[in-house]
Structure formats: structure tokens, C-alpha cells
TrEMBL record:
<protein>
    <recommendedName>
        <fullName>Thioredoxin domain-containing protein</fullName>
    </recommendedName>
</protein>
<dbReference type="Pfam" id="PF00578">
    <property type="entry name" value="AhpC-TSA"/>
</dbReference>
<feature type="domain" description="Thioredoxin">
    <location>
        <begin position="1"/>
        <end position="164"/>
    </location>
</feature>
<dbReference type="GO" id="GO:0016209">
    <property type="term" value="F:antioxidant activity"/>
</dbReference>
<dbReference type="GO" id="GO:0016491">
    <property type="term" value="F:oxidoreductase activity"/>
</dbReference>
<dbReference type="InterPro" id="IPR000866">
    <property type="entry name" value="AhpC/TSA"/>
</dbReference>
<dbReference type="InterPro" id="IPR013766">
    <property type="entry name" value="Thioredoxin_domain"/>
</dbReference>
<dbReference type="InterPro" id="IPR036249">
    <property type="entry name" value="Thioredoxin-like_sf"/>
</dbReference>
Amino acid sequence: MSAPSTPNPAQQFDSILGASSFVFLLYYRGHWCPFCIAHLKELVAISDEIKAAGGAVVAATAEAPPELLQKVRSSTGFTDTVIVDPENLLAKELKSRGLVDVAITDSQVYRLRGYKHGMAQPALLVLKSDGTALQRWAIVPALMNLGGATDRPILAEVWEKAQKQLRGEVAVTTESVTNGYTTTGVRHLLGQKLFGR
């Protein structure tokens, strides 16, 4: 008798989506990235509201070793599903569906850090179970954002926009799905570190 096969990350995501009204998905780089840890803490702060509205809260990363995921959980308090995708299969599938284009940084530096197939950069997607994208964002790594580290949307603001779309108060248009985010930077991270904000 063979062991049951583990679903690939895209199948895992689809399964979660099929069991929820919508999914709030956040990509992070790894346990070593203080901006990612801060972003995940923002997600933790709104996760109860998302789940109360019928949504699923999901994080995704290309960082594979289980002990590193435990470090992320310990430092952020994130207890919801994490899709570990070292081959970036989910990122590629989301791009092929036209939902969000998660940047994959494939360099020798990241390969040495254990990202054999490249590192998925920060991104987010709020997706209804019918396949309608409510919110989406993906970093374009550049010198000005420290290679993809900074300039992330404030997640409470993203969630507020998604709620308005879920209630039908705002139409789902290209502009309402991708524009108008306030972004964070080094200053925001320092505020969290120093003042717990």
C-alpha cells in the first residue's frame, strides 16, 4: 500500500480556497527578513476579522526547512496555514492564472541560503472562491526598496478595501484591485521594533 501523496502547493491553495468564501494570501521571503516578520505581524492583527468574514488566512514562502517555519511562527504569532513552496509552484500557477505575478529572485546569494529554485518575493492576493481577485500586490525588487524588502502595503488598509468589495460597496475593477495602497518602509519597521506598533 503506497503512502498518500501530499498535494502540491497549488493544489493545497485551491483546496483552501474551495473551503472558504475567500483567501487572504501573503507571501514572505523568510525568517531572516525583519520586514517580512513585521508584515506577518500585521496579518496576525487582522486575521480574526478575516476569518469572521468567512475567509482563510494563508502565508506562503519558498523557505523550506521546517525549523525555520517554527522560528517564523514563534516570532510573529502566526498560527494559520503556511504553504511551503520551495519550487515556487504556487507562484507560477497564480501568474499563469493572471492573478498575481510573484517576483522570483534567483541568484547565487539566495541559492546559498537554500532557495534552490529562487526566492519568492513579497506579494499578496485576496481571492474569492469564484476566482475573483479583490486585492493584489507584488513587489518589484529594486535598489530603492532594498531588493524587495520595503514598500509593502499596510495590510489593515488592504483588508478594509477588500471588505468594501465583499459587501458590494466598491466595484471590483482593475483600479480598485491594485491601486491606492499606503506603503511601509524602514520607518514603519522601526516603529514596530521600538514601540510595538
